[in-house]
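[scheduler] slot 2 assigned
[scheduler] job type: sequence-to-structure, two independent chains
[scheduler] chain ordering preserved from manifest
[runner] begin chain α
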Amino acid sequence: MRTSAAHSLAVLPFIFGNSAANPLIYFWRVTDFREAAKQAVSKLFHLKITVETEVTVELEIQKPRRLFLLKVSFSTLQQF
């Protein structure tokens, strides 16, 4: 008995639908799975982005008999 292409295409939505429904069923029925999924989603949407900037500026001025050296350094840390 051979299966036709139309028959195979008709069965595919049921196969994929079953696979897509399994996580929803587990989420509904298994408390540990539900808590783990809630934690994962919570962590996913509460990401913190940290940007650290460090700038150093050195200025050296030479004049006869004098040397001026100015060094400024600062660092910032920003979280978004």
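[runner] end chain α
[runner] begin chain β
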Amino acid sequence: MIFLSHNFKDGDIFGQENVFYDSWSIQPGDGIIDKMNDGLTQCKLFFFFVSNNSLNSEMVKSVLMMTINLVRDVKNSHIKNIQLQGY
């Protein structure tokens, strides 16, 4: 489980409509890469959960590289990358 501590005034930020999570955000028939790109370009915070599984996943590596490239682009400089250490 991930617990995000926040002030109640900001609670709507963490609703499903404001969080990109593959099980919530990608529906059967959707283009996975297109949906991920949409989510990445709309995000303000990018949480990268570091674990042995994520470090060995080609998909996670691809998403991380897409995010790094987006952040380097001046028009997307509003994206903040936050790394979370797994176990």
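[runner] end chain β
[qc] chain β: The first helix runs from residue 22 to 25.
[scheduler] slot 2 released
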